[in-house]
Amino acid sequence: MTQRPITMKDVARAAGVSVMTVSRAFKTDSSVSPDTRDHIRKVAEDLGYVLDSTAANLRSQRSDFVAVTIPSLNNANFADTVSAMSDVLGKAGMQILLGHTNYDIHEEERLIAQFLQRRPAAMVVTGGRHTDRTRKLLSNAGIPVVETWDLPPDPIGHVVGFSNARAMDPLVAHLQATGRQRIAFIGGDADGDTRGTDRRMGFIRAMEARGLDPTRLIRAGQVPISMKEGAAAMARLLADLPDTDAVICVSDLSAFGALSECARRGVDVPGDIAIAGFGAYEIAGIAHPTITTMNPHPRRIGTRTADLLLMTMNGDAQGETLRFEIAPEFVPGGSTG
Amino acid sequence: MTQRPITMKDVARAAGVSVMTVSRAFKTDSSVSPDTRDHIRKVAEDLGYVLDSTAANLRSQRSDFVAVTIPSLNNANFADTVSAMSDVLGKAGMQILLGHTNYDIHEEERLIAQFLQRRPAAMVVTGGRHTDRTRKLLSNAGIPVVETWDLPPDPIGHVVGFSNARAMDPLVAHLQATGRQRIAFIGGDADGDTRGTDRRMGFIRAMEARGLDPTRLIRAGQVPISMKEGAAAMARLLADLPDTDAVICVSDLSAFGALSECARRGVDVPGDIAIAGFGAYEIAGIAHPTITTMNPHPRRIGTRTADLLLMTMNGDAQGETLRFEIAPEFVPGGSTG
DNA sequence: GCTTGACCCGTTAACGTTACCAGAAGATAA
DNA sequence: TTATCTTCTGGTAACGTTAACGGGTCAAGC
Does B29 contact strand C, using a CB cutoff of 7 Å? Predict the structure, then answer.
C-alpha cells in the first residue's frame, strides 16, 4: 500500500495554517507563537510527518553535512577521532558523512568527488597526501577543508595533526637511553599508508641522527599490517638478524603480534629484545608486559577539528587557514624495560 | 572570493546545449550522442562543475542513501559488517549514512529520526530492541528496513542475524564436554547492550538445561566492557569464587583481559581455569593461548544485508519480509584446552 | 515519393522546502 | 486620538535538478 508521502502542505491544511508557518514551527529560532507551534507539532506527529531535509538544504543552499574520509573503519584510532568529531558536531546539529578509502588515494579521490555532490558544509580528510585532482576538487569546493593525522608541508586548508616522522624520535631516544643499539623497524610493504611510511622515514632519520644503523627494516605485508603479520615479521627478524636488541613497530597491533611471537618462542621481552609500538591502543596497556608506545590522542584530534569547523562556519577566522599540532605523548611500558 | 556556484545552466551555456542534455550527459543510461556527452563532460570538468545530488534527489524523489546505525564505531565486529555492506552497496552506486547509538535505544531513536529526514532508500539497524517511537517511525517510513545482529521475535521488516542466546550453547557444551562443571559468566552491568544481555540469558538457560549451576554471574561494568574491565572482573571472580573452573566472557576483548589477569597472577589457562569469549576478534587468534570463541561472521551479515536490499530495491521480493539466519561458528582455541 | 521508426535533443513543469517581502493585529507611546 | 513598534502569519518565488512529453532529423523500407 504505497501512499503519497506527507508534506508540509498536508500538515498546513490539517493544522489550518500556511506552509510557511509549518516551516517555522520546525525551526527553533523563528518566530511562531508557542500555541501555534505546539499545535502544528502535534498535528504533524499525528500525521506521521517527517521533514524533508533534502528540500530544505536545496532551498536554503546550506547543509548540515560534514564529510569525513578515513583510511579504514576497522581501526580504533580513526574510529576515536570520528567519534569525537561526531560528538561535538552532533551537538551543533550537524551530521557526519563517513567514508573509508582503504589506504588508497585514488579511492579517496572517488569518494571525495562523490561526497562533494552532497554539498557538505565542510570536508575532513585523513592524511596530507592526495591525488592532484583531489587537491583541485577540495580547493575549488569553496568550503572549509581540514587535513588530519599529519602535518603536510603544502596543506590544502586547515590542519589538525602531528608529524608522524618526528613521533619516532622519543621512541628511538628512549631505546638508546636504555642501552639498545641494534634497533629494527617493522612496517608495511606498500606506500599506501603514508603515515606508516612517514614513521619509517622518521625512524631512519632518528637513527642516523644518533649514529645508529638504520638498515634493520622489516616489511611485514600489505598495509594496514595486522597482529598476525606483526608476529610473522618478528619471526623473520629473529631469524635474519638475531642480534637485534630492540624493535619499533608501526602500530601497537603489530607490536602485540611481535610480542606474542616472542612469548611463543620463549624470547624474553624486554630482556632479550625490547618492543615499542604506536597508537596507544587498548592492547598496549593490557598486554603482558605492557607495550611502550606513543599516544597520538585521536579523540583530541577529532574534537579540535570539530571545534575549528564550528568556528569557521560561524564566520570567525574567515579566510585564515589554521594549523593545530597535537603532539603525540610518550607512554612508557614494560616492553622496553 | 566567494563566487556564485556553477550549475548545469552554466555548463549548458558553455557547451551550447540545453540543461536537459547536460543532465543526460551525467547519467549513464540515458540517450545522448557520444560526441555530445564527451564534449559536455569536458566543458564541465574545465568549469569545475560538480553535480548537485541534493537537487537531483529532490526532483527524482529517490535517493542513493542507505542509513545504518550501529552501537559503536569503535568495534571491529560492527565495523566489519558496515565495511562489507559498504563494499556491496558502493558498487551499486549507493552511499552509507552511518551513525552510532552508544548502546542507547533513545539515542538510536534520535538518530533514526534524523536519518529519515534524508529520505534514505533503506534503513539498517543493529539489534532487535527499539523504542516504540522508533518502531513506528521505521514502519511508517515506507522503505525497506533490516534488523541485524539479532533474531527479534517481532521484527519490523527484514532480519539478517542470529540468536545471541543460542550462541552460548556450543560454548557451554564444549566446556562441559572437556570436564568443566563450575562455569561462570562475565558480562556488562547495564541492559543497554541487548546482545550481551541475550548472551547472559542464553548462558543461564544452557547451564540449566545441563543441570549445572547458572549463578556464577560477574558484572564487569558499563557496556561495552573493555579488556581492562574483563581483567578486573576476572580478579573478582578468582577472589570470590576460587573453585570456578571455566568462564565465558561476553566478548573476546573481555576474555583477553581475563586471560591477561590470569597470566599476571600465575593462574594457568586452561589448566586451572578455561576461558572462552565471543566475536572471533583478531586478538582471539593471536593471544597466547588462543581464545576459544564464536565467530558471528560480521562481514557475511553485511554482505547478506546489502544483497537483500539491492534485491528488494530492484522490485524483486516486494512486500515480503525476509529473514536470514547467519549461524555463528564455534572456534576452538587453546584457552579451553 | 511517402511512411515509419530510431535516435537525439529541447521545453515545461515539478520535487518540498525556505528566503524575502508584506500585511494584519495588538501593544505602546505621544 | 494617532503614530510607531512588535509579534505573528501569509503569499510568492526560487533553490538545481529530472520526469514527461514533444519535435526534428535521418535512414530504411515500400
Answer: no
| Residue A70 to residue A108: CA distance in whole angstroms | 9
Average pLDDT over residues A221-243: 95
Return d(Cα B141, Cα B133) in angstroms, integer.
12
Assign residue B153 a region: left if phi > 0, alpha if psi is -120 to 50, beta otherwise? alpha
pLDDT tens digit sequence for A14-39: 999 999 999 999 998 777 888 899 99
State how far residue A318 is from chain B, nearest Cα, in angstroms. 11
Bridge partners, residue A204, by sequence: none
pLDDT of residue A105: 94
- CATH fold match for the domains A8-51 and A61-162+298-326: no
User: What would the pLDDT profile of A99-155 be if each residue is shown by its tens digit?
Assistant: 999 999 999 999 999 999 999 999 999 999 999 999 999 999 999 999 999 999 999
Residue in the structure block whose three cell numbers are 568462564: B247
Contact B305, B145 (CB under 8 A): no
The Cα–Cα gap between B129 and A192 comes to 41
Give dist(CA B211, CA B214) in Å, integer. Answer: 9
Query: What confidence tier does B16 reach under pLDDT thresholds 50, 70, 90?
Result: very high
Q: Is pLDDT at A319 greater than 90 in this prediction?
A: no
Residue ranges of the domains in chain B? 8-51, 63-162+298-328, 166-295
How many contacts, defined by CB atoms under 8 Å, are there between A and B?
Answer: 115
H helices of chain B, in order, are 8-15, 19-25, 34-47, 53-60, 76-91, 105-116, 132-140, 169-177, 194-209, 227-240, 252-265, 282-286, 298-313
Q: Inform me whether the pLDDT recorded for B95 exceeds 70.
A: yes
Using CB atoms, which residue from A2, A58, A113 is nearest to B55?
A: A58
Mark which residues 219-238 of B lie under 8 Å from A by CB. Answer: 226-228, 231
Residue A183 CB neighbour total at 10 angstroms: 25
Q: Write down the pLDDT at residue A215.
A: 96
pLDDT at A3: 65
* Chain A: residue whose CA lies nearest to B283: A227
Among protein residues, the one whose C-alpha sits closest to the C1' atom of D6 is A31
Lowest mean pLDDT among A10-24, A28-42, A256-270, A300-314: A28-42
- Cβ atoms of B254 and B277 within 8 Å: the answer is yes
Q: Which of residues 137-196 of A touch B (CB under 8 A)?
A: 137, 140-142
User: Which chain A residue has its CA at the smallest distance from B299's CA?
Assistant: A74
Q: Looking at CA atoms only, how far is residue A48 from chain B in angstroms?
A: 7
Q: Measured CA to C1', what is the nucleotide nearest A56? A: C17
Residue B170: asked if its preceding bond is cis (omega within 30°), the reply is no
- D17 C1' to B99 CA distance, Å: 28
Chosen for mutation from B47, B73, B143 (greatest number of chain A CBs closer than 10 Å) is B73
Q: What is the mean pLDDT of residues B326-336?
A: 97
**How are the residues of chain A apportioned to helix, strand and coil, as percentages rounded to the nearest 5?**
45, 15, 40
Interface probe, candidates A45, A58, A73, A86, chain B, greatest B C-beta count within 10 A: A73
Closest nucleotide to residue B12 (Cα to C1')?
C10
| CATH class of residue range B166-295 | alpha beta
Question: Does residue B185 sit in helix, strand or coil?
Answer: strand
Domain B63-162+298-328 - what CATH class? alpha beta
According to the model, what pLDDT value does residue A1 have? 41
Record the cell numbers describing residue B318, joined without a space: 516486494
The topology under which CATH files domain A61-162+298-326 is Rossmann fold (3.40.50)
Specify burial of residue B116 (Cβ count, 10 A radius: 0-12, 13-18, 19+): buried
Query: Given this structure, which CATH class describes domain A8-51?
Result: mainly alpha
Check residue B1 and give its pLDDT: 41
